[in-house]
Design goal:
With 422 residues, this protein is α/β, with parallel strands linked by helices. It contains nine helices and 27 strands. It folds into three domains: 176 residues, FAD/NAD(P)-binding domain; 133 residues, FAD/NAD(P)-binding domain, CATH 3.50.50; 76 residues, Enolase-like, domain 1, CATH 3.30.390.30. The protein has a five-stranded parallel sheet with strand order 3-2-1-7-20. Strand 26 and strand 27 form a beta hairpin. The longest helix is centred in the C-terminal third of the chain and has 15 residues. The structure holds flavin-adenine dinucleotide. The site of flavin-adenine dinucleotide has 36 residues, from helix 1, strand 2, helix 8 and strand 23.
Length: 422
């Protein structure tokens, strides 16, 4: 079946061999695609999961083989033409070909841009010194792990999930850790103030020296990192005059990512903070799609946004496959996320943006509890620490458009399963 201006393609080319791509390959074959599928990825690895990289893999508790989303045999059995270690440099939309870094061109009937995101890099003096590390890919962590073995004083830049997870691993590995975060509270983009304070308390208990409202002025050392100079950031986010030196033999930066959207923008496709697509992962070019970390997409409840999560990568890849195969279903999945730090598993469903009321509900387990976020008395998001029941129940309610009474949700005398919902 074909939709208006899009024919079911024979030759599908996927750019980027990440989490979303592995799912897209599977969904295309499951959906009955019998034409060719070529997967071009600039990394040399098969598509792998990134979440363990800042958690068990960095700790040395997770074997590399387990990172791969699918074994090699999956791609062979599904007749996927794997081109790894090759970058796509340009798209010729008129000719429907892409230019590869090995000098060849590849024709396509449909092209999926699943190019993900890259780390934002430090730009202060000394940022290029040996001893400065990032946390995005297997190669980054393979370079970081031996540095952790010999370091004593780590400075982590960034109090988002990646920085906090890295800080937790470094503390577990026995390093002294100072964490700098530019804004006055942790997890400023991704969690409520209340949950951020809870997480801050855990890190302080574990001995992390957290410096909020602080930024890096420079990294210094003779031949490699020996100290960092930090400074306070004023309320209007302007760096201040008061500088302080901290000894450091390891710097780990987790200061966010940038979507890999230049292939699309250079080819004249619209981009915002990501490649702009509709709810079916379609760009305005009927042959080109985008999904995963790189996709700027509309969401029924949260408006236009770009999400950085495994859930989004997987669900959008499924929506992308459906659209390519001519049976589009709008992507409108409930965003959910998790993070592991020390013995705390944090799980969230929904998004915390725009809440006007937060209610904390104590949990049964140590370091546990849940934060219920409301806007106009409607449940928007639940953030649960060591409380899978609260997470699952909240997720179900949000998906069903149900709201527990904000007057009772914090009352642990009422079990969640008996909680009145509106
Ligand atoms: C350390 C870490 C921990 C995380 N933890 C969690 C977590 O706990 N929970 C959670 O939900 N999410 C987590 N995430 C986020 C999650 O891993 C991402 O949302 C997910 O990997 C996105 O998948 P993707 O396929 O869209 O992009 P990516 O995984 O970024 O894959 C894109 C691939 O495309 C390649 N590429 C880019 N441009 C080109 C080009 N021109 N030519 C060829 N190849 C190209 C890139 O090199 C990359 O390999 C974590 C991410 C990181 C880095």
């Amino acid at each position: 079946m074909a939709i208006a201006d899009r024919m079911v393609p024979e030759r599908i080319v996927i750019v980027g061999a990440g989490h979303a791509s592995a799912q897209l390959c599977e969904s295309l074959r499951k959906g009955g695609h019998t034409g060719s599928i070529t997967l071009v990825g600039e990394e040399t690895w098969l598509p792998y999961q990134r979440p363990p990289l800042s958690k068990a893999y960095l700790l040395g508790d997770f074997e590399r083989e387990r990172l791969f989303v699918k074994p090699h045999s999956f791609y062979a059995d599904a007749d996927i033409d794997l081109r790894l270690g090759i970058r796509v440099d340009a798209i010729d939309r008129d000719a429907r070909t892409i230019a590869l870094s090995n000098g060849t061109r590849l024709p396509y009937d449909a092209l999926a841009l699943l190019t993900g995101a890259r780390v934002r890099r430090l730009d202060c003096p000394g940022a290029g010194l040996p001893g400065v590390h990032y946390v995005r890919g297997i190669d980054d962590i393979d370079a970081l792990m031996p540095a952790v073995d010999t370091a004593r004083n780590a400075v982590v830049i960034g109090g988002g999930y990646i920085g906090l997870e890295a800080a937790a691993v470094l503390r577990k590995r026995g390093l002294a850790v100072t964490l700098l975060h530019r804004s006055p509270r942790l997890l400023s983009r991704v969690a409520s103030v209340e949950t951020a304070q809870f997480i801050e308390g855990i890190h302080r208990e574990e001995g992390v020296d957290i410096r909020l409202g602080t930024t890096l002025r420079s990294i210094e050392g003779a031949g490699r990192v020996q100290k960092v100079e930090i400074e306070r950031v004023a309320a209007d986010h302007v760096a201040g005059d008061t500088a302080e030196e901290i000894p450091a033999d390891l710097v780990v930066a987790g200061i966010g990512v940038l979507p890999n959207q230049s292939l699309a923008s250079d080819a004249g496709l619209p981009t915002e903070d990501g490649i702009a697509v509709d709810a079916q992962c379609r760009t305005p070019d009927p042959a080109i799609y985008a999904a995963g970390d790189v996709a700027w997409h509309p969401h029924g409840q949260w408006g236009e946004l770009r999400l950085e999560s495994v859930q989004n990568a997987l669900d959008q890849a499924k929506a992308c496959a459906a659209a390519m195969l001519g049976d589009p279903a709008p992507y409108d999945a409930m965003p959910w996320f998790w993070s592991d730090q020390y013995d705390v598993k944090l799980q969230s469903a929904g998004l915390p943006s725009g809440y006007d009321r937060a209610i904390w509900r104590a949990g049964d387990k140590a370091r546990g509890g849940s934060c219920w976020l409301y806007r106009d008395d409607r449940l928007l998001c639940v953030e649960a620490a060591n409380d899978p029941r609260a997470y699952m129940t909240g997720k179900r309610w949000i998906e069903a458009g149900q709201t527990p009474d904000p007057a009772t949700i914090g009352n642990t005398d009422i079990a969640l399963k008996e909680m009145p919902v509106l």
